[in-house]
Design a protein that fits this description.
The protein is an alpha+beta fold. The protein has 4 helices and 5 strands.
Length: 142
């Protein structure tokens, strides 16, 4: 399986600094982010928004896969992820993510639909990553 990459560049202090984020595919290239877009009403992106988009996309794909296991195909799946960043001690933490999905699935009954949605929430790789007990790090001082 291929490895997929994301990267960030930051300059300056927390409140007065600025940064950019990019993806290995180039779909996002040097997109600006900063303090205002994360903690106030800035117009740039922020880490929580990117996590939400990744989680919504992953969940939607997992849901589609599980529907296929029941010989069902969605006409549409629309998923929104609300990521809650909250104050915790001297810092901040993502305390919850709420997935809100609406799908049009011809032939699906409510029970199969709900079971598939729950399985997708629990089984999508991003859900698993966000619950992972270990994050590894290599840090180098330049």
């Amino acid at each position: 399986m291929p490895k997929h990459t994301g990267s960030a560049h930051w300059e300056g202090g927390l409140q007065d600094g600025k940064g950019t984020v990019s993806t290995g595919t180039g779909v996002l290239k040097d997109q600006p982010y900063g303090f205002k877009s994360r903690f106030e009403d800035g117009t740039n992106t922020n880490p929580e928004e990117l996590i939400g988009a990744a989680h919504a996309a992953c969940f939607s794909m997992a849901f589609s896969m599980i529907l296929g296991q029941h010989d069902l195909t969605a006409e549409t799946i629309d998923t929104k992820a609300d990521v809650s960043l909250e104050k915790e001690g001297d810092g901040f933490a993502i305390k919850s993510i709420h997935l809100d999905m609406t799908a049009k699935v011809p032939g699906a009954d409510e029970e199969t639909f709900q079971k598939a949605a729950t399985a997708a929430k629990e089984g999508c790789p991003v859900s698993k990553a966000l619950a992972a007990p270990a994050i590894t790090l290599d840090a180098k001082l330049a």
